[in-house]
Specification:
Elements (H helix, E strand, L loop, with lengths): L5 H18 L9 H12 L7 H16 L6 H22 L2
Length: about 100
Amino acid sequence: MSEVIAKDVLAAAQQHMIDRESMYDTPGGERSIPATVAAFKAITGDGQIDSDERGWLFMVLLKLVRCQQGNFKLDNYEDAAAYCALMAESAAVERNS
């Protein structure tokens, strides 16, 4: 692995934000969190991420929100499916203990 330089990480992050502006068709870049938080609060009732299952739920919702923004991007659907599987795994451990 090559050397990691902080300023290079920041430059890459900036480019990702620029890319997501066009990818998710939102001026100023991707802004999925407000809708994700609102959905999470509506589903959980308390908005607490207090388990692995709920952490994965938050990530599933983030991907589902992104599915509704901009052009079709298969990666969002694939990630949502993967996160659902991980959420099921966590739920089985946490709720069957």
